[in-house]
Amino acid sequence: MAQADSASGASSRWLRTTVKVISVVLAALGALVASVGYLWVKPLRLLLEQPIPPDVSVEDVYFPGRDGTRLHGLYMAGRPRRPVLLLCHGYFKSVAEPFELACELNRLGYEILLIDFRACGLSDGRFTTLGYREVLDLLGAVDYLRARLGDLPIGVLGISMGAVAAIMAAAECPHVEAMVVDSAYADLESAIGKKLTDYLRLPFLVPLGWVSIRLGEWVSQGNVAAVRAVDYVGLLAPRPLLLIYGELDDYLPSDHPQRLFDAANEPKELWLAPGSGHAMARLDHPQEYVQRVQAFFGRYLSSA
Q: What does the alpha-carbon distance between residue 150 and residue 144 come to, in Å, rounded to a whole number?
């Protein structure tokens, strides 16, 4: 009888210990998933650290997005009555990402506005939505340019997330007359799905990854399924479009460049930068990149 009681007690202790261990593991896993869900929508505040070239005049400007979010930008005055280019950075970046490119284009005479999307750089806001609410930021930037410059022709160059926001914004904004989109994802959901599969090598972890994505959506009031440049790009015509992708882009599903190109209407162009990864063409091929962008905007954006 004593042996039976001892065995029963040991079994009970083992069960309690097992339950405690499982509870701790589940709590830790839940905390990890929640943390990841928060962190993927909470950008680091990257500020411009590059020195400003002496031949470029840069002005800090502030303006509201369409929902009233206070946004920061850098304005570079160009030659009188030359077109204006709006440059938009990618995910977790800031005006620092396209700054050197902006300087090169400004030297060619273009008025330039670089913007910090919400929650990035010096702009207000707490969270990024990878293109969903950034559309409102881009539309606010167009409003600011038109209030400041009148009816000067506006071209947009966006990188990754900025390219997607640009496509979606321009679909409802006729004041954008020409667009260069660099490394745009055709739809955000499949782009995220690829990254989850790449990073979470064990298949049973992928559903937990999607839980973290949904938590991030809830925190940021975003909508991953609604960020679909492929559904908007066909609405840009007859305005011209230049699509740029790195030939070795492993960040996006391999079919995204062709899906977006096929969905667009003429006039449209596609450049696959040899040997480049995601959003790296401007760094790997700086001269050709500027030449192609300048030739495109020079052809389609006339001086006022």
A: 10
* Cis amide bond preceding 238, omega within 30: yes
Is the bond preceding 267 in cis, omega lying within 30 degrees of 0? Answer: yes
**Spatial contact of 256 and 185, defined as CB atoms under 8 Å apart:** yes
- Nearest CA to 89 among 44, 54, 57? 44
Angle CA 190–191–196, to nearest 5: 90
Asked if 304 and 83 touch (Cβ cutoff 8 Å), the reply is: yes
Q: How many helices (H) and strands (E) does the chain have?
A: 9, 8
Nearest residue to 270 via CA among 167, 171, 180: 180
Alpha helices in 108-179 (DSSP H): 134-149, 161-170
Kindly report the number of other CB atoms within 10 A of residue 247's CB atom: 14
What would the pLDDT profile of 234-246 be if each residue is shown by its tens digit? 999 999 999 999 9
68's CB contacts (< 8 A; 6+ apart) are none
Distance CA 140, CA 260 (A): 25
Q: Tell me the mean pLDDT in the region 293-303.
A: 90
**Domain residue spans in the chain?**
58-300
In this predicted structure, which of 30-39, 103-112, 192-201 has the lowest mean pLDDT?
Answer: 30-39
Homologous superfamily of domain range 58-300: Alpha/Beta hydrolase fold, catalytic domain (3.40.50.1820)
How far apart, in whole angstroms, are the C-alpha atoms of residue 179 and residue 187?
Answer: 18
Burial of 231 (0-12, 13-18, 19+ CB in 10 A): middle
- pTM tops 0.70, yes or no: yes
Hey, which residues does 114 pair with through a beta bridge?
Answer: 74, 87
